[in-house]
Amino acid sequence: QVQLVESGGGLVQPGGSLRLSCAASGFTFSVQYMSWYRRAPGSERELVATISANGGTTDYADSVKGRFTISRDNAKNTLYLQMNSLKLEDTAVYYCNPGFFPWGQGTQVTVSA
Hints:
By secondary structure, the chain is mostly beta strands.
């Protein structure tokens, strides 16, 4: 069955960086576009970034454009999210998913001084 396991979250100060990873299994990762979502406390789940199956096309929410970079390694069935210049409002649980698979546990990112 499909499994999406996110990791790499943590506590970071404003302006800091984190790199999230997502290990995917149970489907043909290399032909599937993938996305990162996040859910902040008290908010709906938000689409953060999307990458095409071959990695050639990416798209970002305006709130993270220029600060976050989505990438993938199809040989390792792994999705990444490099997050730089983190802000307090980036605090959320981050999930990888194309939007229609069962959701994983996510990884908590907390930006705090």
